[in-house]
Amino acid sequence: MVQVQIIRDKIRRLRETVAALRSALPATVEGLGSRDALDLVSFRVYLSVQEAIDLASHLIADEGWGPAPSLRDHFTILATRGVLEPAMANTLSASVKVRNLIGYAYARVDASKLHEAATELLSVLEGYCAAVLAYVERRASG
């Protein structure tokens, strides 16, 4: 059974992190020229993706749809179950790669690629929150 209040709390936390990312992300890639700016945006992207995964993981567990074979598969499962549109799930799944590059330092973070990834992530996260919230509220009322 879906625990609506826990989902709402996770969405609130994710929205706060998204707001922090939005305020840290400069309008152009040139704004990521300093190590501090690059690190701050990298950290906010990492947290945003991690919180999106956590939200998906919680919903999947509550609904008994798992386990997900990989972190990327969390979003595929939500699309398969009708919670997310496939395009959104694909974008979120791709963001896991960026999270891994940041978190495990597989490669030096490229400012241009980070700016592009952060911008794309910001374009879907509010829709993600809204889709998950709409799903759990429908389940709770029906």
Keywords:
142 residues; Four Helix Bundle (Hemerythrin (Met), subunit A); 0% strand
Q: Structural class, judged by helices and strands?
A: mainly alpha
Please estimate the helix content. over 70%
Mean pLDDT: 95
Question: Which residues sit in consecutive blocks of at least 5 with pLDDT less than 50?
Answer: none
Q: What is the name of the CATH architecture?
A: Up-down Bundle
**Radius of gyration, Cα only, in angstroms?**
15 Å
**How many β-strand runs?**
0
Strand content: under 5%
Total domains = 1
Identify the CATH class: Mainly Alpha
Main sheet summary: none
How many helical elements?
Answer: 5
Secondary-structure element order, as H and E?
HHHHH
Gross morphology? elongated
Going by CATH, what is the homologous superfamily?
bsu32300-like
| CATH topology heading | Four Helix Bundle (Hemerythrin (Met), subunit A)
First-to-last CA distance:
12 Å
